[in-house]
Predict the structure.
Amino acid sequence: MLKGPLHTSKVSSSRWFNRLFTLVYTIAILTLLYRHCRNLICLPSLTTLFLLVADLLLAFLWATWQSFFMNPVHRQVFPENLAQVANKESDYPGLDVFVCTADPFKEPPVGVINTVLSVLAYDYPTDKLSVYLSDDGGSQLTLFAFIEAAKFAKHWLPYCKKYNLLDRSPEAYFAKDLSPFPERNEILAMYEIMKSTIKDVMDKGTIDIDQFNDDRTIKALNKWTNGCTRHQHPTVIEVLLKHNEDKDVSGHYMPNLFYLAREKNKATPHNFKAGAINALLRVSEKLTNAPIFLLLDCDMYSNDPKTPLRMLCYFLDPNIDPDFGFVQFPQLFNNINKYDTYCTEHVLENRICTFGMDGLEGMSFMGTNAFIKREALLGKPTKGKWIWNEQNESGYDLALAHHVASCSYEENTKWGSEIGFKYGTLVEDAYTSFRVHCLGWKSVACTPDRPAFLGNMPVALNAFLTQAKRWYMGLLQVALSKFSAITFGVMNMNPLQALCYAYFQFRSFWCIPIIVYAFLPQLALINSSPIFPKVSDPWFSLYAFLVLGAYGKNLIDYLVAGSTLRKWWSFQRMWLILGCSTYLFSFLDWSLTTLGMSTMEFNVTSKVSDNEQDTRYQQGIFSFGVESPLFESINVAAIINLFAFLIGIGHVCIHNGRLEELFGQLLVSGFGVVIGWPIYEGMMLRSDPGKMPAKTTLKSVCVAFFIYLVFSWTF
Ligand SMILES: O=c1ccn([C@@H]2O[C@H](COP(=O)(O)OP(=O)(O)O[C@H]3O[C@H](CO)[C@@H](O)[C@H](O)[C@H]3O)[C@@H](O)[C@H]2O)c(=O)[nH]1
Ligand SMILES: [Mn+2]
């Protein structure tokens, strides 16, 4: 019996209010759908059909969203009680950390080094800790950078531990003006030298091996022969730091640090990040085989060295279910502005989806920041207490590790289909998580006050919309496959949990109702044709209830989640922007890929910062700047709304009695205009480099005019 708990959980008391709201709102939705069906039968029209389809989809997506509110759970961990189950550090299980990078130019190595150093310096027994860097760019430059990083680590780790620093990413640490310790300036100087050495090599783009005189470096860098490219190269595994051999400057052993570039050739699909993780799983199994691994994106540095102790509160709990599979920490970012302009803080995902799923079968895996039981990727949970194998201390077989990282290794195996991370989608994380939960594994969310990990989000609109397009296209691939949440999921997991997954998988479907409501009422308004009930009609109050209820509830959710009114407003704007662009284009991408007219591509998000864009973003100003079809569709919607609103005002001024009939449409287009303000500014009122390119604006005006003409004939 434990004296103090390792973790506790509490079901949120707000669930009763939410359940009641869901019930009342469901009745209102059904009433509206009844009205559409009745209208369609009595007075069939294309407009009613569009409204019915849009509202049916809204109802479906709304229903999936409700599942997060049915049983939210909040948990707490007590690492201070760990000593009861593991009284010495040598009782801790081994931990392998996987850090993925894919392109030294989009993901500058210095940033990746910061992530790696922040985990190498974890407060975890060094003989139990191994860090693997997966370099999917197969780049000599990255390896070079890490040879330098390994040298710096021998100074950095003892410094962190001596002063018990909280910030163990050097960049984050030096950015803060903390009270200086005696060695601070010396370490800072070393860090700056490392940075400039790497920068020089990056600027040149090649490495002159002759300049080195130590054999180990020469041997490692010589693995790149002339014909090597990022798409064609042999497996490279380098042991950069070896426990039991490499010591830091204070004489303590270092954790292991491995560099891995799996073999690539053009004939074998490499399956993007999922392929990289699977190679990591196999290689690490041959080298250190820790029972738990932590997966990190290269820009997600650790912000708290005690994080592994928090996850141990679950893994070491003697009473934990044997089907317990992973602990997910939230994805938080350190560059979000106070308006959350692009809604990249993901307030609802982090504060509602997380706890909502945690109370069902467990938080979904997010691609990074998760500590996962190795077994959870190898098959179904086994019954009985979890027993792990001790790490392989007797040395390891590097030749075997090379073998399992080769292109041909996965041929005719279950890797990617039954075991490891799953292939066939651009969102290996959401899909693998879904399949793992379907097998019966459980998970929890761990949300300490001090963020466990911090990363960066894009600060230019096109970069974010493109990144999100990749996510939603990937999710669509799952939604419309035989592993869809609403078919396979409902049959293989708690149906509410399946609905949670459906909420993500079907997100692109938002584009249909959003586009219907961004164009139909407006075009009808331009043609002075009413489509909503008159203000005096009792049906109008139903609409009013539905709209106010949805927006009001959403605002409450935002505020209860600890966010602000301003951020909520940005969310409303981005929801419509995504609906008119990203969601729509992810459908297009999905169609082209499914028809075989385009191949699936994982475009790595650039982590290079641009000062001008950063400044603009911090001021809450949109960065458009580049020509993009994603902007065109947003502009067209904005133009139509403005035009409709002005014409609508004209109609009601000329014909006194029309206000009652057209009120709903005026309101919708007026809302469009208010919410679209930054877009009008970008098109007409700004002259800085972040404005909307004139060519994009011009194209949008032409398309908007064309749509106007077509609809003028139909109404
Ligand atoms: O072929 C590839 C492509 C990407 N990556 C790595 O994958 C990570 C994520 O890539 P990024 O471009 O940063 O994508 P994001 O959209 O920011 O990533 C989110 O979405 C991904 C796909 O759903 C998840 O894998 C990530 O964990 C999640 O943070 C990065 O570390 C990359 O280096 C690879 O290792 N190999
Ligand atoms: Mn990323």
